[in-house]
Amino acid sequence: MAITVIETPDKFTPAFNPVVFSISSDNYAQPDFKFVVDVYSGTGQLLVTLKYQPQVAGNEPIDFDISRNLHELVAANYCKLNEVAGADIVVTGAGAISGYSVQFGEQYNNVVHANLTSYSGYIFNAAMNNKRFAFYSQATYLNKQFLTRFPRQVVRKRDSVILSILQSDAAAMANFGLTIYNMAGTILYSDNINNPYTSLANTSNRALHLHAGFDHLYSIVGFSTAIYNAAAYYTITPPGGNTMRLDLYSQCERFPGVRLYFLNELGGFDSFNFMLASRPEQTNEKKTYQRQAANRRTAYDATNRRFEATVRNYSTSYTEKLKVISDYLTDTESELLEGLMYSPLVYQEVAASEYGGPAGQNILIPVDMKMQDYTRKQTRVDKMFNLEADIELTYTNYMQSI
C-alpha cells in the first residue's frame, strides 16, 4: 500500500484559488480501486471524504482541487476601526487564516486503507487574480510583505489603517519598524512596534493585523507633539521585509470626505478617502392596493374632517445611497480603486451620531459599489481625472403598512 504525493500547494495558500494536490498509487490495479481523501479543519473536524477513480492509465497521477471544501474556514471579520483595538497595535488573525490537513488513503476489495500519508497547511482569506496566482509563492509574503498590492497610500492623521501580514510558523517576527519623516524626508522618529504574538504553535498567530493609523500610533507609542505636527509621512517595515509608506494628507479639507475600507484580493483591507462633496440619495419601492372607503360616494369623513386614504401602501421600503467623488487621482490610486469596484466587502466609516449613536465614536457600515464597469486611467494619457461613484447601503429599510 503505497501512496505517493507528487504535488502539493504552498503551505500558506489563498483559500479562494485552486488548492490542488497530485497523488498516485502502485495499487491502482487492485479490484475496484479508489483513492480516498479525508479533508480536516485545523481543529481536527472532518470536513469531507472524497473518492476518486484512478486514471485510465492507472499509473498516472490524479489531480484534485479541495478549495471549495475549505472556503468556510476563513472569514473577513477582522476589519475594525483602530479605536476599537484599544491599546493594541498588533492583533491576531481572527478569520483571516485557518489550518487544514489532508489524509490520503486507498480503497479496494471493499476495504478502506485510510491515512497512508498526510499533509497539513494553512489557507488565508485571499482570492488572487488568476494571472498573478500563476506566479504566487508564499516566500514573497511570509514575514515580508503586507497583504496589499499598494505599498504607498495616502491617509489623514485621524484615519484608521489596517495592515495585515502572514507570519511564518518557522520563525516569528519580533517587531515592526516605525519611522516618521518630515516634508524634507528627514527622520523625526524611529522605533520598533513590538509583536506580542510570536508563538509558533498558535494558528491564529499566522496572520497579524496592525492597527497603524497615525493618531492611534500617537496615542500608544507616545512620540512628541512636535513630531506629530511636523510629520509628512511614515513607514512601517517588517524585519527584513518590504516597507509600507503612508503619506499624510496635507491639503485643506473643503468637505468631510467619505472613507471606505475594502477587502482586497490578498485578504488585507485597503482604504481610500473620497474627498469632494458627496450627495445622499435613496431608492424607494411601494406596493399598493385600492381600498373601498367608508363613505363610498366621496371618501370624506366629516367628523374628523379628513379624506380617507383609499390607496393603501402595504409594503414600503427604501434604500439609502451616496454619490461619492474623489479628488484628482494618481495612476496608483486609479489602479487601487479598480480593486474597490470588485471587492466583495466594503465598509463606509461614519460618525455614530449620524444615526443617534454616541458622540465622538465612529462606526463601520457595509456598503455595495454599484459601478459595473471601470476604466483605469493614466495621467500621461488622461491628464487630470477623478472618480465619481455610487455606493448603496446594504440594508433595506421598511416603513409602516397601512
User: How many beta strands in the DSSP annotation?
Assistant: 25
**Low-confidence residue ranges:** none
Helix percentage: under 10%
Distance between the termini: 73 Å
> What is the helix tally?
5
Secondary structure category: mainly beta
Spatially, the strands of the biggest sheet line up as: 18-17-23-24-25-22-19
- Give the amount of beta strand, in percent: 35-45%
Mean pLDDT: 93
Shape: globular
Q: Report the biggest beta sheet as strand number plus sense, adding barrel if it closes.
A: 7 strands, antiparallel
Over all CA atoms, what is the radius of gyration? 28 Å
Q: How are helices and strands ordered from N to C?
A: EEEEEEEEEHEEEEEHHEEEEEEEEHEEHE
Outline the structure in words:
With about 400 residues, this protein is mainly beta. Among the domains are: about 5-75 and about 100-125, Macroglobulin (MG2) domain (Immunoglobulin-like, Sandwich), CATH 2.60.40.1930; about 275-325 and about 330-400, no CATH class. About 10% of the residues lie in helices and about 40% in strands. The protein has five helices and 25 strands. The strands form six sheets. A seven-stranded antiparallel sheet has the order 18-17-23-24-25-22-19, covered by helices on one side. Strands 2-9-8-4-5 form a five-stranded mixed sheet, with no helix packed on it. The radius of gyration is 28 Å and the shape is globular. The chain starts with a strand and ends with a strand. The model has no long low-confidence stretch (mean pLDDT about 95).
